[in-house]
Write the structure tokens for this entry.
Amino acid sequence: MNKPILNVKNLTMKFGGLKALDDVTIAIEKGQIAALIGPNGAGKTTFFNCITGIYEPTRGSVEITPPGKNTQNLRGLKPNYVTERGIARTFQNIRLFHGMTVLENVMIGRHCRLSSGIIKAMLQPPSQKNEEQKAVADSYAILEKIGLEQYVNDMAVNLPYGAQRRLEIARALATDPFLLLLDEPAAGMNPQETKELDDLILWLRDNENLSILLIEHDMKLVMSLSDWIHVVDYGKKIAEGSPEDIKSNADVIKAYLGEESDNA
Amino acid sequence: MVFKNQIKQSLIIAFWFMVLTFPIMVIKVNTIKHTIDFRWINLLGVGIVTFFASMVWNYFLRRNEEQKKKDIADDIPLIHRLLQNDRFRRPFLGLIAAFFIAYPFVFPMYHTSIMISALVYVMLGLGLNIVVGLAGLLDLGYVAFYAVGAYAYALLNLHFGLSFWMVLPMSALLGTLFGVLLGYPVLRLRGDYLAIVTLGFGEIIRIVLENWDTFSNGPRGIGDIPPPTFFGHHFGQHDTMIYIYFIVIALVLMTIFFVNRLENSKIGRAWIALRDDEVACQAMGIDKFKTKLTAFALGATWAAMGGVVFAAKTSYINPMSFTIWESITILCVVVIGGMGSAIGVIAGALVLILLPEYLRAVAEYRMLVFGALQVIVMVFKPDGLIKSVRKVYTFNVQEKEIHEQTHT
């Protein structure tokens, strides 16, 4: 049997006395679209931040097995090394580089795959020029895939909201990931945009050889898209299973809707 | 109606100033005759001047806001439009080149000397521009690296007899090394904290130079620093000045050339991205610490080379040349000139260094004028005298080839 490409075991994150994550264990299989759901403040974004190295977890391990490579432990690595190892993410509150064009935003994503250093930047030998040209061409190719090529030379800040969210995905793709973490990609989108996003995520999985873990509140999107769903509440994992299982799971319903009081 | 309000406001301001300045401008105590003179005419003068100053200030403020509304995107500074236009670029650059080549032969030595100082500041400004303008790190101890360069030349020459041309590349390396050494501990901080710590480091270097007598000769400084030679040939005093002038011109051109290339490379993009959003930048696989450190170290490189030229030109250095005020002056050059804009920094250095030299009469008020200038620039031109116009990577879809085009 294949090892899961992301294997998070007993992850605990404490902020002072608050346990934002408590003993969370989650595994993602290759080619899977998994969803992480839970009420507000359940610790979903904290989970992303622990995996990507923005926080160092208090306890637990984060192991990855990139396709065709050995298992590595990511715990305690800085965010840029996590990205280099093949995990890319988007942010809940859009964090684009506003002073740059759409193309340049994607080129920043290519950064860790380019090799030219300071000396080469100053002397500009042919190898550096070729690499820069290739970076531009690659970035444009990614924009074409995501369907943002008409905005290529616009300032990122001037894009419509839905396009900004897609640009974040494009930028993440530019880092050549095997696992994509999407933090509420559909937040604030209208139904049409959500539908397009749905198609995009499926397309990415099928054509780009990606596995995807997404945090999302739009249940329709989650249920239609995910192969597997993990549910957290108050930092604890309360359930996992296929969309059908989750829909009928008593703990999940309780977490979302609250419990009826018996002794009323 | 608006105009009426303006007059009313200006009248109130004028009245307020008359009240404020009354004790200084009007009352004069004659201590010999034991009388008090009331110079009412001064009061009237203050009132009239303030009234008109306030009117003018308001007028520009309003015009500025109206212009902002009109168009933000296509507001490219004149000089950039000149440089972009193929018809004007060559004659324009030629004119500038001719001016700078002819300068030392047309003007007397005193003016050449001042121009050298200004050009050294252009180098310092361009170096600091990497740190402050591109990478967004507020460095208030930049003068420390300038001191490193100047003392490197003075000491290496004093003890080992090394020449200007040998020390110049060595100082560049030394500057980079010091940039890394000082940057390593402080770059974990950001914003105001970074500013305070760099300020401290700048002062530490100066205080060490001032007190470590056996090493740096203390506050007495080091004299008799030889000027650069031309393949072993020594020039007379006047020719040396012209020679140094052309060395600085060459160094400035080299600085512009390399800084421009750095800015338009992978590293330059990373600097700008880091300034925009640190978290996103790291999540995109950019090593935050390394990127900051390169900005800091490369900035220090140019400062150290500037220091060598400074030492060679003045032939005497002491720690008093490297006070916090120098750091602030260089920062003013960058901010007033235009953060992130090479042409802006050049303009800023020439204005800020040349003006005080020619206005020696009011040299005492230099810092006051700098302060006022900062306020005026920040109110009317928040992007600096000549705002930054970055080369933006654009993709030409029709030709399917990479095309670089300038854009705000």
Remarks:
- The longest strand of chain B covers residues 391-396.
- Chain B has a mean pLDDT of 85.
- The beta strands of chain B are 27-30, 35-38, 391-396, 401-406.
- DSSP finds 16 helices and four strands in chain B.
